[in-house]
From TrEMBL:
Organism: Propioniciclava flava
Protein name: Zn-dependent alcohol dehydrogenase
InterPro entries (UniProt xref): ADH-like_N, ER, GroES-like_sf, NAD(P)-bd_dom_sf, YIM1/Zinc_Alcohol_DH_Fams
MF term (GO), any: oxidoreductase activity
PANTHER family: ALCOHOL DEHYDROGENASE RELATED, RETICULON-4-INTERACTING PROTEIN 1, MITOCHONDRIAL
Pfam families: ADH_N (PF08240), ADH_zinc_N_2 (PF13602)
Length: 322
C-alpha cells in the first residue's frame, strides 16, 4: 500500500511575476517540494546575489530562463539539511552545507527562500565559520577555480586579475595566492588596502594601466570585467593563456580561436561537488575568507539586487535568510 504523501509546509520564498526592476521581487509563501530520492531539503542560512540573478530578473537571460512566470532567484547558498532523500549518500540531517544550483534551470529554481529542495549532487559539506557569510563563496569560488584549471595556474605562475576586488575577483585573488601564484591586479585605488592584505604583488589603476610595460609578462590573465580585452591579450606570454568570465568576452574567445597568438577562453561556471570540497578545504586552512560588501534580510532582497546592479564595490552582496 502506498504511504499517504507528507504535507509540505509553505515557507517564505522570493518570486517574481514579470521581468523588471528589483521591485518585482516578492516574498510569498510557497510549499517546499517533496524531496525525490536523490534530493535534500535545506533550511537556507543565506544566498548571495550574482550578476546573473539581476540580469535574469531584468529579462536579459530569456534564452536560459524562458518566459514562464513566476520565476525564482538565487544561485548559491549555505544552510542546514533538514531532510534527506532515500538514495542520498554522504549527507545527513542537521549537516551544514553549501551549494550552487547551476544555470541550467535559471528562473525555475531559486535559493532565495527559507527552505529549498535541491539535488544532493549540487550540495557539499560547508566548512567551519559563519554559515551566513559562507554563502559568498560557492559561485564565485567555483568560477575562479574552473578558470584557474583552464589557465593551469600553479606555484610560481605570474597572473594578472582584473576587477580584483569584485565578487569573483576578491575570491580569485585569494585562490591564486593559495596556488602559490604571484598576483598582479587591475583595480581602483580605493581597493589598495584589501588587495595588499590579500598578498597581491602589485595593483594598477584602471585609468593608468602601463600596457607597454605589461606586454607579454603573464603566464595567465583572468578577466572579470570585459574591459580592454585586446590589450589584456597582449599581456599574455607566448606560452600563456587568458580566460574571461565576462559575457562581453564571448566574441573575442571565438575570434582568438581562429587567430594566431594566445588563446582566450570564456569560462561559464558549472556545478561541482569536488570544486565545493576544494573550496571548503581552502576555508578550513585559512587561505580563503568571504569578503562581504553588504548584507540584506530576505524581506529587502530588492535592495540587494539594486546594489549588485549598481556594479561597484568589493566582495559579495549577501541575503541573510536566517
Ligand atoms: N562566466 C561565469 O561563469 C561568471 C560567473 C560569475 C560572474 N560572471 C560575470 O563576471 C563579471 C564580474 O562578476 P562579479 O560578481 O565579480 O561582479 P562585481 O562584484 O560587480 O565586481 C566587478 C568588479 O569589477 C570592477 N571593475 C569594473 N570595471 C572595471 C575596469 N574597467 N577595470 C578594473 N576593475 C573594474 C568593479 O570595481 P569598481 O567598484 O571600481 O567599479 C568591481 O570591483 C560579471 O559580468 C558577471 O556577470 C560570470
Amino acid at each position: 500500500m502506498q504511504e499517504p504523501s507528507r504535507r509540505r509546509e509553505e515557507v517564505p520564498t522570493v518570486e517574481y511575476q514579470a521581468f523588471g526592476p528589483p521591485a518585482v521581487l516578492q516574498v510569498i509563501p510557497v510549499a517546499v517540494p517533496t524531496p525525490g530520492p536523490h534530493d535534500v531539503v535545506v533550511t537556507v542560512a543565506a544566498c548571495s546575489v550574482n550578476r546573473l540573478d539581476t540580469a535574469a530578473r531584468a529579462g536579459r537571460q530569456k534564452f536560459l530562463t524562458g518566459r514562464r512566470m513566476p520565476q525564482r532567484t538565487g544561485l548559491d547558498f549555505s544552510g542546514t539539511i533538514v531532510e534527506v532523500g532515500s538514495h542520498v549518500e554522504g549527507l545527513r540531517e542537521g549537516q551544514r552545507v553549501w551549494g550552487f544550483l547551476g544555470t541550467q534551470h535559471l528562473g525555475a529554481h531559486g535559493a532565495a527562500a527559507v527552505q529549498i529542495t535541491v539535488d544532493a549532487g549540487l550540495v557539499a559539506p560547508a566548512p567551519s565559520g559563519n554559515l551566513t557569510d559562507l554563502a559568498a563563496l560557492p559561485l564565485a569560488g567555483l568560477t575562479a577555480g574552473q578558470a584557474f584549471d583552464r589557465l593551469g595556474v600553479g606555484s610560481g605562475s605570474r597572473i594578472l586579475i582584473t576587477g580584483a576586488a569584485g565578487g569573483v575577483g576578491s575570491v580569485a585573488v585569494q585562490m591564486a595566492r593559495a596556488r602559490g601564484a604571484v598576483v598582479d591586479t587591475i583595480a581602483a585605488p580605493r581597493y589598495a588596502d584589501l588587495l595588499q592584505r590579500q598578498g597581491v604583488a602589485s595593483r594598477c589603476d584602471p585609468h593608468a594601466i602601463p600596457w607597454t610595460r605589461m606586454t607579454g609578462q603573464y603566464q595567465a590573465v583572468l578577466d572579470t570585467t570585459g574591459a580592454h580585452l585586446w590589450k589584456l591579450r597582449r599581456c599574455v606570454a607566448r606560452t600563456g593563456a587568458m580566460v574571461t568570465i565576462s559575457p562581453a568576452g564571448l566574441p573575442m574567445s571565438f575570434l582568438s580561436s581562429i587567430m594566431p597568438g594566445p588563446s582566450v577562453s570564456f569560462v561559464s561556471v558549472r556545478p561541482s561537488r569536488d570544486g565545493l570540497s576544494a573550496l571548503a578545504d581552502l576555508v578550513e586552512t585559512g587561505r580563503l575568507t568571504p569578503i562581504i560588501r553588504a548584507r540584506f534580510p530576505l524581506a529587502d532582497i530588492a535592495s540587494a539586487h539594486a546594489m549588485v546592479e549598481g556594479g561597484h564595490g568589493e566582495g559579495k552582496v549577501i541575503v541573510d535568510v536566517s
